[in-house]
Amino acid sequence: MPDPALKVTNITKRFPGVIALDRVSFELNRGEVHILFGENGAGKSTLTKIIAGSYIPDEGEIYVNGERATFRNPYDARTMGISAVYQEFSLVPQLTVLENLFLGRETVRRGFLDTESMRRRATEALERLDFHLDPGARVGDLTRAERQMVEIAKAFQQKMSVLILDEPTASLTDKEVVKLFEIIRKLKSDGVGIVYISHRMEELKKIGDRITVLRDGKHVATLDMADADEKRLISLMTGREYAEIFPPITHQPGVPVLRVESLSTASGLRDISFTVRAGEIFGVAGLVGAGKSRVGRALFGLEKIEAGKVLLHDQPLEKISPSKAIAAGILYFPADRHKEGLVLCRSVKENQTLAALPLFEKRLFIDGRRERSTVRSLIDKLKIRPPRIDQTVNDLSGGNQQKVMLSRGLTRDIKVFIFDQASCGIDVGAKRDVYHLLKDHAEKGAAVIFISSELPEILHLCHTVMVMHAGSACSIMPGREATEEKILTSCFGYDYGRFVMRYERVRSSA
After folding, report:
1. Confidence of residue 241 (pLDDT cuts 50, 70, 90)
2. Helix H or strand E segment including 497
3. Contact between 108 and 121 (Cβ < 8 Å)
4. From CA 5, how far away is CA 70, in angstroms rounded?
5. DSSP sequence for 4-63
């Protein structure tokens, strides 16, 4: 048998107070997609960053194509044919797509940058991936989905023997995911070994050959995908028996809390009207670019409202801004926690109390004892790991970062919660914690707006579902009547009733 594309043995990595990896071994064959699976904080990101040269292990060995390797930095890993696409983008917002694609590997001709050659190669790479991006566009002006495309295209700019993909489909449309999977299959046929991290169960069977489960920094099991069903994987991942992911929500919605009438914005929302009641989880569905995220941003004052009304308990909200929204009892959690939701260089404590500092004031100073006590209780309630209030947020896993951001809603009296892609890029265990948080808010009488691209979440959690298409609300339906077919039909801009009637006529005439 030929040597594997990648082999790591007994890898150990320690951070202050934490053993992130404890003698973990992992093997990746040529032409294999090997899934790395586990809860946030299990050690997946630490292991891939060691493989890609971002971290240096305290113990253990790395072999690439049978050759012992020592990586001091990512450049050393790239020279050995290892390329990585992380969940957290490594892009420079001020630079163009072209400049980001060739950053650190620019083409030079006669002592000058060969811009024409780089532009041609960038265009070819984007066309090969079927990503419709302008190489001259500034990355900071792109959507999250477009930035994900740039990150993927950057990895494909070099010859590789090992490719690491960390949640690569989190921001892509179904069409883009299909194209990415086609490219992955082509890489497999070329002998490239692929380490693939995803929390989307439906993806694993489609793309994976084997799966390795990590828990608490330790290797738990490696299985063939044919032997790995959802219940077994969740049990291995959590160390507990499989339980229902979506909690039952028994509270019945009450009086109207938030009313939106004929809302239109400068960003493209048109004539949107809906009502959210006390104790209701109001789902907003739609394809990428349909405008569902802009609804939440407009209600929080992040999008300019050109027409229409927003009423809270029948009182109109004029010239909404984030500060006015928070003062009125409306709190928004953005989809991009790194860019807009967290101050990554600050502590868990500072991020959790950021929106509620006046509540901790004591004679012009912050009551540190009460602040720390509050933060500790939030850490315990949301099971944030490691449970250290002074931990820098940037050092936490993605799921724990998400919990830190969401915990802000527990520090003050909030009437309307707006969650935008709250479960994006986090594992099943963390998703379950987020769902229970939504359940708690609803059962305590808050109005919850839940914006999601995941149909199972919309179908299982929401009392009412609004489907967005091209900036408009094309349908609103009770949650008990919502089905996957109805929602998808509306996502593409059809009226479901007319669609079914037309389909029946065509079928009968055939």
Report:
1. low
2. helix 496-509
3. no
4. 15
5. PSEEEEEEEEEETTEEEEEEEEEEE-TT-EEEEE--TTSSHHHHHHHHTTSS--SEEEEE
Q: How far apart are CA 374 and CA 69, in angstroms?
A: 47
Model confidence at 346: pLDDT above 60: yes
Q: Which two tokens stand for residue 106?
A: 């620019």
The chain-wide mean pLDDT, for the chain, equals 87
Measured distance between the N- and C-terminal CA atoms of the chain, rounded to whole angstroms: 56
Helix (H/G/I), strand (E/B), else coil: 95: coil
Domain 6-238 in this protein, CATH class: alpha beta
Q: Retrieve residue 457's tokens.
A: 């979440």
Using one digit for the tens of pLDDT, what is the confidence trace for 395-420? 887 788 888 998 887 877 899 999 99
Residues of the chain with CATH 3.40.50.300: 6-238, 256-503
What are phi and psi for residue 265, nearest 5 degrees?
-130, 165
- Bridge partners, residue 18, by sequence: 15
Give the Cβ contact number of residue 434 at 10 Å.
19
Tell me, what's the pLDDT at 31?
94
pLDDT at 488 over 90: no
Helix H or strand E segment including 145 = helix 144-155
Query: From the centroid of its chain, how far is CA 497?
Result: 33
Question: Helix 398-406 to helix 428-443 angle, to the nearest 10 degrees?
Answer: 10
| Residue 15 to residue 160: CA distance in whole angstroms | 30
Would you say domain 256-503 falls under CATH 3.40.50.300?
A: yes
| Least confidently predicted of 192-201, 243-252, 437-446 | 243-252
pTM of structure: 0.64
Residue found by looking up tokens 């950057």 in the block: 154
Band of residue 493 on the pLDDT scale cut at 50, 70, 90: low
CA distance 173 to 488: 13
The string over 310-330, giving b where at least 16 C-beta atoms fall within 10 Å of a residue's C-beta and e elsewhere, is bebeeeebeebeeeebbebbb
Residue type, 330: I
State the sign of the Cα–Cα–Cα–Cα dihedral 122, 124, 125, 131.
positive
C-alpha distances in angstroms, 147 versus 61, 236, 345? 34, 33, 22
How many angstroms separate the Cα of 98 from the Cα of each of 90, 117, 150? 14, 11, 9
Q: pLDDT tens digit string along 411-450?
A: 778 999 999 999 877 777 778 888 999 999 999 999 999 9
Say how many C-beta atoms besides its own lie within 10 A of residue 508's C-beta: 7
Give the pLDDT confidence score for residue 240 in this predicted structure: 63
